Every structure is written in structure tokens, then in C-alpha cells.
């Protein structure tokens, strides 16, 4: 469990991978908050710089659909 002074939370790693072509390290974590809700934490590492943000399930679904729609339009998918 991690404590950031605002209550307790538990994070569980869901996936970790490297994005091409620029080699960003991406980690997805489920964060269970003490207030009885969960978020998806997206951690993107570019060399020494980190971008970290958390989204709710509706945002994750919207983003996921947009990613799938874009990937389907690319000629060299898979």
C-alpha cells in the first residue's frame, strides 16, 4: 500500500510495455482508493521524465475505443 497523506491506496500493476518507435515505457496500474473507488493509473516514462495521471472507467473506455479505431485505420497493424 502507498500512502500519500490523503488516505491509503493500493496499486496493482496490470501491464507494462515499451511503445515504439520512441521507446517510452508505459505501465498501467489499478489503484484502489480507501474511499471505495478505483482508477486506472497511466505512467509514461521518457528517459528521466515521468507523466503520471489517473482516469476513471468511462474515460478509459472512451480512450480505448479511440485507440482501437485509430489502429484499425493503419495499414500495417499487427
Describe the structure.
There is one protein chain. This protein is α+β, with helices and mostly antiparallel strands and 78 residues long. The chain has one domain. It contains one helix and five strands. It has one helix at residues 57-72, and strands spanning 2-3, 8-19, 24-33, 37-46, 49-55. Strands 1-2-3-4-5 form a five-stranded antiparallel beta sheet. The longest helix has 16 residues, at 57-72. It is flat and about 45 Å long. The model has no long low-confidence stretch (mean pLDDT 91).
Draw up the topology in text.
Blueprint: E1 2-3, E2 8-19, E3 24-33, E4 37-46, E5 49-55, H1 57-72
Antiparallel strand pairs: 1-2, 2-3, 3-4, 4-5
How much is the average pLDDT? Answer: 91
Radius of gyration: 15 Å
- Domains (count): 1
Which residue ranges are poorly predicted, with pLDDT under 50 across at least 5 consecutive positions?
none
- The tally of helices reads 1
Distance N to C terminus: 37 Å
Share in helix: 10-25%
Strand content: over 45%
Shape: flat
DSSP strand tally: 5
Order of helices and strands: EEEEEH
**Helix/strand structural class:** alpha+beta
**Arrangement of strands in the largest sheet:** 1-2-3-4-5
Q: Profile the largest sheet.
A: 5 strands, antiparallel
Amino acid at each position: 500500500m502507498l500512502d500519500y497523506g490523503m488516505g491509503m491506496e493500493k496499486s496493482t500493476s496490470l501491464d507494462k510495455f515499451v511503445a515504439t518507435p520512441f521507446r517510452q515505457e508505459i505501465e498501467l496500474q489499478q489503484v484502489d482508493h480507501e474511499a471505495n473507488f478505483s482508477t486506472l493509473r497511466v505512467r509514461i516514462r521518457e528517459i528521466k521524465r515521468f507523466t503520471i495521471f489517473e482516469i476513471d472507467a468511462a474515460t478509459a473506455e472512451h480512450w480505448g475505443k479511440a485507440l482501437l479505431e485509430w489502429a484499425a485505420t493503419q495499414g500495417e497493424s499487427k
